[in-house]
Structures are given as C-alpha cells and as structure tokens.
Task: inverse folding
C-alpha cells in the first residue's frame, strides 16, 4: 500500500486503522496509548494484523456508513458478495454514561451467493516485543505473551474457531461476527447481540453528527472531519490526541518519526475551538476540565503536552526490533518534547477559555477556577514573554524569539482582558491593557522585516514561516492591513511548492523537508480567502481536498512530488484546519445568497 489508505474506527477510548482491503493493521488496547496488539503499519513482517483474504476475482470497495464512524468494506466478485462492518462499540448506557469497551467488532453481513474467504489472524501483543501464542478454548480464542510483560487478548466468533486460527477457508451463508477484546467476556456474544451493538453504535454517531450544523458547501467534508476529531478525543479525561499513531514518518526513510498519541495543549485547544463552534459543547467542557485538573498550583507552568491520563512525564524510548513504516526507523514511543518550553500555548489556551466563557458563561460550573487560571496565565506571560523558546515547530536545538510565540503571548493577554470584562474586573483590565499594548508594539517593531516586506519567523530574521499567517485569525492584525497582505504574498512566493506549503525553508535540526505540512496549506488558503483572493483560494482548497485518501482523511504531511500522505494519521490539526476553511467558504456563499435575495 503506497498511501495511507486506511479508515479509522474508535470509541473515544481507543482506535484502530483498517486498510482499504479490510486488514486491521493498527490497534492499541485497552487505550489509545497502550501497547499495540496489531502493528503491521510499523512492521509488515512481525507487527501483526488481522486480514481478510479473498481470491483475485473480488473487487473491494470501502466507505463509511453516512454520518457515523462505522466502516463498511464491500467484497464482491459479481456472483458472491458480503460486507464487513467494522466498529468499536460506543453508546449511552441506561444508567447514564457511555458503554465503550476496549473491543473491535467485525460484523460480516451476508449479501448473496456463497462468498469464501480466509481470516489471517495474527495478533502480536506488546508491540510484538516477545512471542505471542494463540490457543483455541471452548468459548473463545486467547492470545498471550510472556516476554517483558504478561498480556492477554481474546477473540470471540460465530465462525469455526479452529478455521479462523489455522487460516482455513470459510464460506459465508449468513451474517457472522468476530469480536476482538482486551477482556474476557462474562456473557457469551452472539450474532444477534453483535448486530444490536452495531445498531446502538450507529445510532450514537447519528445522534452526535446531527448536532453538527448543515453548510451550503463542503458539508460532507466538514461532517467527516468532525467525526474524525471526535474519534481522537479521550472520553475519560477530556484529552484530545494529536493523532492515533506513532512513528509514521514525515519523509519516507528519514528520522522525523514521533509518537502523537498524546495531548498537545496547542493542537487540542485548536480542535476544541472548532468542535465548540460546531455546537459540540460537551467535548469542549470536558477538555476545559482536563486543563483545570492539570493546574493545581497557581505558579505551575503548563507543559506543552501531557499523557491522555494527565501524565506529566512522557519518557521517549525506541523500539529497535520494529523496522518502521516502509523501513523508516526509528519507531518511537513516548515523546521527549514534553520538556520543551513553547510560549504560544498560553495564548491558544486563553483563546479557548474566553470562547467557552463567552458562549456558556452561565452554564460553566468551573467559572471561578477558570478565572484563577486566567490570572495565572497572565502572570506567567508577563514574566516570560520576553524570553526565547522552541516555537510551534519544536526546534530541538536553539531557542529563538519566534514571532508566532510572541503573537500568542499577546493573544493570552488580549483574551484575558475580555474575560476580565465578562467578570467585570476593572482593575485587572487597566493593568493588563498596558501589557497587551507593550507586547503588540514589540512585535510590530521586531517581527516586521522591511527588506522582505513581511512578518518573519523570528525577531531579526529574514526567514518566512507559515505560522505567522495565524496573526490575522487570532485578531492581532486585520486581513486588509497592507502588512498582512504583503506577508501572505511573500509566503506564497517563498514557501509555496505546487500549491502546497513548506512550514519554513531555513535549515532546522534535520535539513529541508521534502513534504508539506498539511495544516500550513489550509492556513495559506484561509489567508488568501481573507485578503480577498477568494477564487484562487477555492481552487487551492479543491485541489488540496483531492489529496485526501479514499475516505476523505488526512495525515500530517503530503509529499510535494507524489502527493502521497505522510506523517501520523489521521491528524487532528489537518482536519480542524479543513473545517475552518470549509466554513469560511460556506458562510461566504450564504452571505452572497442573502445579498442577491435582497437585491431582487
């Protein structure tokens, strides 16, 4: 498989990736950041997978059940056909809360004829570190490993268990199922029970999706992206993951391979803002509680990222025995970036806090705690905004005065002033306004480079950086300000490559990247739209959408030459930016239709 042709299924506890031919190639249980049960994605020989093997006469097509996270893979050779409906159960329990067990259900729907297939079942527990042995028992199949760690995994099925384990051919004459679970079941599953689980899960997603508004344009893409962002949220704590995978490389054969199964404050806050705008306020509320829980001490600085269960230490290790995606080593688990200082996170978090308070001020039970966090953030920003940091792109070497970090320090204070207005704290408004103006003046004086006629990556630099395009969306500068317009054009000239954007082109710790960071291209499209180049923006947007995979999903990067998807997948960043762009285009069309109607 040359592209990331995978669908994601999940239940806000964990997720799994299924290839376009129906192979389960990535799944960590019981939670997102647990060790893998199937990791063919990271090693085709030893990673482990669960494949559906049919003869060459079959064509295989894949789609999502509309408005849900149920993935349907359709197999047909003309005379014989069947479907697999893959899902992870999630639905409301009768007593409140959600049922979301650490399980994958593969429901086989009989359509016609006498279809035959082989199930190649090969779990490799604990990242395939030790040997996994599989045994057929009376009611289930159990796999276990006793390497460095003891672990077990269970399979229940309506098919002959020995035929499944031995890879013998199975003939489908009626609906069947395979249930893969982390825990042994107390009650024996049946086809009927699994069908009920499927229907309940389907109804859950239909209800969730019905809260997403309908838009004039790009409704399908907005809906699929919203579901994908929901799939990357962790219900238990409110954390939002950057992506569902680890170590998918930004460039094949290189070493920019990181574990993204964590909650970056920046990525998560941006996701929450977009999901909140779509009307899904429970996701936003849970995330704010996640933040409240993380800041027990008033003087404690925020880390840039945390584990999904609020872990503060994310030790990075290398899995030497895995060959990596398409041979791209190393495979990493954990992420050392948690130690970095990035001053932009305060502004991004403050923006979300303000948005939520402005929308639901009477509704939020933790208003006082959020006011306490607001004061704490301003205190930290006032003491540290003049310091250099690693910046949004996490340069692992020197610290610099990055423009984006400075702008977001300004955002932190600007939004704190707005929160103070909501709470009628006039003395704070007066004090904080002086700080806000001081930071703004500093940015205009030091980040603007008259030689290149643009705001640059860092103070005193000539290098351009896509992140400065966010100055406008965060309200630092007006879209029609000549300084912003010339920055957009300078970035287009310097960083655009066949319509895709580099994050930056100056040398970093790893040399010049050969792939585009997908979110940067969305930012650029948004900026073109805002400065009035709307038709050009639309052309770029439609072209970028055509680079998604067969299900409309995006990873972190796109290769400049081949346009293949690269980097961790699916990527929250990419999908939130897609939604922002699509909503802007859609609103514009609605406004034009209203104006046309008024003219008539």
Result:
């Amino acid at each position: 498989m040359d592209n990331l042709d995978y669908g994601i299924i999940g239940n806000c506890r964990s997720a799994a990736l299924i290839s376009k031919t129906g192979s389960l190639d990535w799944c960590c249980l019981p939670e997102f950041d647990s060790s893998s049960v199937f990791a063919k994605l990271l090693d085709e020989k030893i990673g482990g997978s669960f494949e559906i093997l049919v003869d060459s006469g079959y064509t295989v097509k894949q789609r999502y059940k509309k408005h849900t996270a149920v993935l349907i893979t359709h197999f047909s050779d003309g005379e014989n056909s069947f479907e697999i409906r893959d899902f992870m159960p999630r639905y409301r329990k009768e007593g409140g809360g959600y049922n979301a067990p650490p399980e994958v259900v593969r429901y086989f729907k009989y359509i016609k004829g006498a279809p035959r297939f082989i199930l190649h079942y090969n779990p490799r527990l604990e990242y395939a570190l030790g040997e996994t042995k599989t045994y057929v028992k009376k009611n289930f199949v159990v796999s276990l490993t006793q390497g460095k760690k003891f672990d077990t995994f269970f399979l229940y099925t309506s098919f002959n268990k020995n035929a499944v384990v031995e890879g013998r051919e199975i003939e489908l004459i009626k609906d069947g199922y395979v249930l893969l679970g982390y825990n042994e079941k107390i009650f024996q599953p049946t086809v009927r029970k699994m069908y009920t689980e499927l229907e309940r899960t389907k109804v859950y997603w239909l209800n969730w999706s019905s809260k997403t508004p309908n838009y004039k344009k790009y409704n399908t893409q907005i809906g699929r992206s919203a579901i994908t962002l929901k799939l990357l949220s962790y219900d238990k704590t409110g954390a939002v993951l950057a992506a569902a995978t680890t170590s998918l490389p930004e460039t094949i054969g290189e070493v920019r391979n990181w574990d993204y199964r964590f909650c970056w404050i920046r990525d998560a806050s941006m996701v929450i803002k977009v999901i909140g705008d779509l009307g899904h306020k429970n996701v936003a509320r849970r995330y704010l509680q996640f933040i409240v829980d993380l800041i027990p001490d008033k003087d404690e600085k925020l880390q840039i990222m945390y584990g999904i269960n609020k872990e503060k230490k994310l030790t990075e290790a290398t899995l030497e025995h895995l060959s990596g995606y398409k041979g791209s080593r190393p495979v990493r688990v954990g992420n050392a970036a948690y130690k970095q200082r990035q001053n932009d996170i305060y502004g991004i978090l403050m923006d979300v806090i303000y948005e939520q308070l402005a929308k639901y001020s009477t509704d939020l039970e933790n208003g006082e705690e959020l006011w306490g966090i607001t004061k704490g953030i301003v205190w930290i920003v006032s003491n540290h905004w003049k310091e250099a940091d690693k910046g949004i792109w996490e340069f692992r070497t020197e610290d610099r005065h990055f423009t984006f970090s400075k702008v977001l320090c300004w955002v932190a204070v600007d939004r704190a002033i707005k929160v103070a207005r909501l709470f009628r704290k006039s003395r704070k408004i007066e004090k904080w306004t002086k700080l806000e103006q001081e930071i703004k003046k500093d940015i205009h004086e030091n980040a603007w480079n008259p030689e290149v006629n643009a705001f640059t990556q860092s103070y005193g630099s000539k290098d351009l950086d896509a992140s400065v395009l966010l100055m406008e969306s965060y309200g630092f500068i007006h879209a029609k300000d000549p300084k912003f317009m010339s920055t957009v054009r300078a970035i287009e000239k310097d960083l655009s490559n066949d319509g895709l954007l580099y994050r930056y082109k100056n040398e970093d710790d790893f040399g010049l990247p050969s792939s585009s960071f997908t979110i940067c291209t969305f930012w650029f499209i948004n900026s073109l739209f805002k400065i009035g180049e709307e038709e050009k923006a639309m052309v770029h947007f439609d072209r970028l959408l055509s680079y998604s995979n067969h299900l409309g999903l995006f990873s972190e990067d796109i290769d400049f030459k081949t346009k293949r998807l690269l980097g961790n997948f699916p990527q929250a960043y990419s999908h939130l930016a897609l939604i922002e762009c699509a909503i802007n285009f859609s609103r514009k069309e609605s406004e034009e239709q209203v104006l046309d109607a008024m003219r008539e």
Q: What stands out?
A: Residues 347 and 408 are 5 Å apart (CA to CA).
